[in-house]
Amino acid sequence: xxxxxxxxxxxxxxxxxxxxxxxxxxxxxxxxxxxxxxxxxxxxxxxxxxxxxxxxxxxxxxxxxxxxxxxxxxxxxxxxxxxxxxxxxxxxxxxxxxxxxxxxxxxxxxxxxxxxxxxxxxxxxxxxxxxxxxxxxxxxxxxxxxxxxxxxxxxxxxxxxxxxxxxxxxxxxxxxxxxxxxxxxxxxxxxxxxxxxxxxxxxxxxxxxxxxxxxxxxxxxxxxxxxxxxxxxxxxxxxxxxx
Length: 243
Prior knowledge:
- By secondary structure, this protein is of the alpha+beta class.
- It has 2 domains: 3-74, Winged helix-like DNA-binding domain superfamily/Winged helix DNA-binding domain (Arc Repressor Mutant, subunit A); 81-241, no CATH class.
- The chain is built from 12 helices and 10 strands.
- It has helices spanning 3-14, 16-24, 33-40, 44-56, 76-89, 108-112, 122-134, 153-157, 165-168, 193-205, 222-232, 234-241, and strands at 60-65, 68-73, 114-116, 119-121, 138-141, 146-149, 179-182, 189-192, 209-211, 218-220.
- The radius of gyration is 19 Å and the shape is globular.
């Protein structure tokens, strides 16, 4: 284990401006240096220096399209580390008097539905994971941080119009088919991996969920509420919307 490498990565992530830029990329999108400078409230020149360090450390990668350069997180593993740091950062202090424990983000929209890199988190993400677990479509080994899809996954995804083979046939770049990811706000597992990304992409593609500007929060549209309620069931859907 290279302790110097660990210390170097920790120092890079620990600088506030770089932290802000990394957090801005946690919704899985690619952003320009100027957009990331705005997110960190620093000048473009300063942002460029920070971004160079993050790219050199393999925390970010650059994609070129014509004259434009876009930055995104280098891998799902980077997003997983950042999500873990957020969980540590919001660990609640012991209350002075008995009160309801609130963990994670206080923003109601973030708690209901948001992106965690390329998959769904918040109450919606947890509800989807619970539904797939209950139906036997996926199995989690929480201690090992691993999971796998079963032969029931095709039936579980059919009403979404998804081809389960796209998620479970082989491994793309060594990425897991599915795995548990500890939810920052719910402190329970939601679904990550290729299957989680596929479901997230489908919900966005169908207009069931809409991205917000400058936030990871997702808006559930009326058609999305109907489709997802029919899929998850009325009782579990009430847990998502808080009714």
